[in-house]
Amino acid sequence: MARRALIEQRPWLLASITVATAYYFLSDNPVFEGTWGLLAKGASVGLLALYALLRVPHGKHRADGFLLVGALALAAAGDVGIELDFITGGALFAAAHCVAVVLYLRNRHQRPSPTQKLTGAMLLILTPLVSYLASGAVEIAVYACFLGAMASSAWMSHYPRYRVGTGAVLFVLSDWLIFARQGPLDLEPANTLLIWPLYYAGQLMIATGIVQCLRGEQPVR
Questions:
Q1: How many CB atoms lie within 10 A of CB 166?
Q2: pLDDT tens across 102-138, in order?
Q3: Radius of gyration, alpha carbons of the chain
Q4: Which candidate among 79, 97, 150, 170 keeps its CA 20 to 30 Å from the CA of 209?
Q5: Which domain holds residue 145?
Q6: 58-92 pLDDT, tens digit each
Q7: What burial letters (b/e) apply to 141-165, b meaning 16+ CB within 10 Å?
Q8: Is the predicted pLDDT of residue 46 greater than 80, yes or no?
Q9: Mean pLDDT, to the nearest integer, of 135-154?
Q10: In 3D, which of 16, 32, 34, 126 has the Cα closest to residue 75?
Q11: What is the rounded CA–CA span in Å between residue 94 and residue 86?
Q12: CA angle 65, 175, 36 (to 5 degrees)
């Protein structure tokens, strides 16, 4: 029954999950090399952006919905761009993080707990620090400043931490595994097995968590 409701009411969300799963399991298949692989990778989060766009409610939260759509669309472009040029992909993701930070700052938690404040500060500081230690590259640490700002502001927002905040942390963990490939750490097979699931699960949790809050289906804190 739940699956039928998902198909009828949120077909683009189901399509995103299906494409992302196919990309993960078939990315090494010759059919998915080149154009088809790029399309599948970009469509995974791109369809999340379409899902969010179609679910954006009218009213005072409409601007927040469009910020979410923009962040997801830029991330989808980054997914494709990073396969073609690492710097271009990183720039697109940095832009996505900037848009997400604006969204989260517009929706700050009014009375954050001391633990929430501490976790937010740790994400802001440790994300670029660990990224630099893992990669040994200054340019990656610079990008990770944007990543850390996104994760920190998501954690400090009034959106549910177990959905949106945790999704942002999964995004950070995925990027750390990518950065480790640039440095001396050999974390295989964790890199190959976990980068995509952590990243996509994080984006899925962020998109659905925020959309449900905007539509009043999930209470904000």
A1: 18
A2: 999 999 988 888 999 999 999 999 999 999 999 989 9
A3: 17
A4: 79
A5: 2-214
A6: 767 789 999 999 999 999 999 999 999 999 999 99
A7: bebbbbbbbbbbbbbbbbbbbebbb
A8: yes
A9: 96
A10: 16
A11: 12
A12: 75
| pLDDT at 3 (0 to 100) | 52
Q: What is the dihedral of CA 50, 54, 59, 61, to 10 degrees?
A: -30
- DSSP string over 133-151: HHH--HHHHHHHHHHHHHH
Classify residue 221: in a domain, yes or no.
no
pLDDT band at 220 (very low <50, low <70, confident <90, very high): low
Number of structural domains the chain divides into: 1
Name the nearest CA neighbour of 71 among 138, 137, 167.
Answer: 167
Mutual angle of helices 35-55 and 11-26, in 10-degree steps: 160
What is the 8-class DSSP label of residue 165?
Answer: I
Is residue 118 in a domain?
A: yes
Q: Which residues contact 136 (CB under 8 A, 6 or more apart)?
A: 182, 183, 184
pLDDT reported for residue 183: 77
The percentage of residues in the chain with a pLDDT greater than 90, rounded to a whole number, is 69
In a domain, 219, yes or no: no
